[in-house]
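Team,

Forwarding the record for the chain on the shared tracking sheet. I've put the sequence and predicted structure together so nobody has to dig through attachments.
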Amino acid sequence: MKNIKIALVGQPNVGKSSLINAISNAKMRVGNFSGVTLEKAEATLQYKDYCITMVDLPGTYSLNGYTSEEKVCKNFLINEDYDIILNVLDSTNLENNLTLTLQVKELSKPIFVALNMIDEAQKDGVEIDIQRLIDILGVGACSISSAKRTNINVLLDGIVGLYERSKEECIKDSKLETNQSNNAFEWQKATKDYIEHAAVTSTLSRQAKDIADRIQKISKKRAEGSAKIDSILLHKFWSIPIFLLSMLVVFEVSFVLGKYFQDLIEDGVDILAEFAIDSIPNELLASLIGDGIIKGVGTVVSFLPLIATLFLGLTLLESSGYMARVAFILDGLFFKFGLHGKSFIPLVMGFGCSVPAYMATRTLQNEKEKLLTLFIIGFMSCSARLPIYLLFVGAFFSIEYAGFILFLIYLFGFVIALILAKILRIFVFRGESEPFVMEMPRYRIPTLKVIWFSVWSKSYLFLKKAGTVILVGALFVWFLANFPKSEEINKAYNEKIQNLQQQNMSDEELEEIKNTYKNNMLEEQLEYSFAGKLGHVMQPFFAPLGFDWRLSVALVTGFSAKEMVVTTLGVLYALGDNAADDEEENKSLQEILRQNIDTAGAVAFIFFIMLYIPCFAATIAFVSESGKKIYGIYLFVFTTFVAYVFAYIAHEITKLFG
């Protein structure tokens, strides 16, 4: 069996990844390119008598070597061993895509061009003469549609044919090939010099435009529908209000629809926890299983319906092509605050998870603009913060206004980020801004497959974290809250119970007083534990914000994973809750929070959670992308100071109007 190794090259959003997925029986391996954190995807498949390996290089507009993507592609194409370059083009945008093709062609490697999205081009009234493209460029080519799996076998046959022809030519020209390998260093140097200076200049652009004009015919006016939609969504005055309204709708639907399923899961978690506590005779083990594991993890899992609904809304906006247009809309606004238009993409990704958001800053070529964006991404409320918001919004605000309050939380974080970006730009990251250049994708109706994959993958990662990181964290917090035990507190409790039993009172009165004493005993034991001592040490610092010692402990555990805040509160407050036999008397965590925290303290806590340092994994990603470990310390100090100041302001304003 013969082996063929293919380097998959193309501009962003041309469908390289979907092409790999469209090839049946492809075995995917995902890792990182050597020395960088860019993702490296390889697919291996069997076709006829060939074993074909495809290496999916990062999407890049050119091979100039400015961005991380360009450097990785350039280094791989020049230095790595492969047989064929498969250049994927967007058939609806040939002129721009051909500029990269012209650069790749100079590498003197066998090239096969795949004109993807041919079905969309035909809908636009675009006819492409494939044979003329082959004649002009001297490469193999065919049209495909990875979305509809059109001409996939034609593509594979073309690659195999090109491989066989290239091998035959190598055998015929073996003497020439020997000379070339003796002069490999000179060839490589010449190629490097060419690519180093072969920017996407006006000459390349004119050549690409000339080729596109010669190989395609446009029979009708293109993108009339897109133009009409853009006239509304990109309107000078209404574009930003429309964007804010669309986000408000997403949050409202997420809260209203997800709340119903959340309540069902919460009821199930409570029943399961009570069953475990009642069924296990050992009190300590019962507390570990019921309060530590089931309630600790279950409280977080109950928010999955709301999070999945939010993911669904954001996926619809992003995959339809609307989010890219929002970046265009906000470029002028961002410029006023010292940010680049491309900063919008990592900032929006920050609403999902800060880790990929930090990695997305690689598209920013200016180092100061990249650092500025890195420092404010953490103010975007990632999905891990959502369970905390939902917990406190549901506890302290009416359900009718919950979606609107949630929308304001996300909006406040975004506005605060812009204000701080301006301050940092003036005093820290001074310098000239670069112009904003971004290709506008066409509008598309998201497929069910894309929607399902996006929502399911993100929800699965959330559940996976709940079953691993959060589970370990819940056990750790339970240990802190249960040890050490004070024998004096237990002894005092037992003496009170004995004194009660000697008094003449009804069984109901006796049981009620015993439960009160037990509650007080649990509260005292909790304050005596490691968690209580840690909380009391921190409480004076957070007292001006209205936080009790439990909230202080939750902020510390939240650094490991923001979902741990809810888990910590569930464990700490559950231990002090009245373990009543009557199920109706058991209080939910939201009700317990209302009893122990005032509204001003709750609002301050929301602001602190919104603004303080992201989780440990995100902080590691920040340090990696910023390039210096000292920046991690700067981030901690900066975000903690900002969070404290805004939380204090929010606390005082709420008290003033409360």
